[in-house]
Amino acid sequence: MRLLVINPNISTSVTALIEAEARRAASPETALSFATAQFGVAYIETRFEALTGGYATACAAAERAGEFDGLVVAAFGDPGLGGIKELFDVPVVGMTEAALSSACLLGNRFSIIAISHRIQAWYRECVAANGLSSRLASIRSLTSPLRDIATVQEDHAARLIELSQMAVERDGADVIIVAGAPLAGLARQLRGQISVPVVDGVSSAVKHCESLMALQPGTATGGSFQRPPRKDNAGLPPALRALLE
Fold first, then answer.
1. Cα separation of 82 and 88, whole Å?
2. What's the number of domains the chain is made of?
3. Do 86 and 24 belong together in one domain?
4. What are the pLDDT digits (tens) for 128-173?
5. Do 183 and 215 fall within a single domain?
6. Are residues 104 and 68 part of one domain?
7. Structural domain that includes position 223
8. Which residue of 32, 182, 218, 240 has the lowest C-beta tally within 10 Å?
9. Which pTM value belongs to this model?
10. pLDDT digits 0-9 by tens, 73-110
């Protein structure tokens, strides 16, 4: 099985974190490849940044069309996920939907630990879009400025643990989701330090996508996720235009 993992932001240092966790999680028979957005922002925390990240992800995937059997959108909030699902005839899985699915299998209510206060409103909308607002215990986030997006885990380790414990003790969380690619792999460190299960988005997305590839459920030729209809277009990159035609 060939699995492509795309980082929708431009930070290659974050792609390295994603790759490390994906390789720890993936089955031996899964051939992993990775891509980083060629345009956009260093990390996504707003709706507009998610809009650009989704388009960058679609472009990166189009350039590699035919080279993968499954695709992971490796940013919390799943930028562009619905449209990318329409574009490809293979399983496409987002970090958010995968992490939420894992959390719902492990407990009733979950809390999300995020890297930015600004990101909270968008994350709440993402939870609502997945129909799970009633199971969201809380979103807690860092409030201090980030020195480097690639070193968030090291710079804020103690605070991330504290936020997780607060979500359990004060908000009633049964499961903790550590949100965002910059926190990829942190769940492994928190296990044993937090009194409830801890879920990572990258590893959840990899494992869920592997299971869908193995299940071979077929592709959408009807319904709302069938391929977009042919129509005149202009200004699109050649690889994307080829997929649409």
1. 11
2. 2
3. yes
4. 999 999 999 999 999 877 787 878 888 888 899 999 999 999 999 9
5. no
6. no
7. 2-94+204-243
8. 218
9. 0.94
10. 999 999 999 999 999 999 999 999 999 999 999 999 99
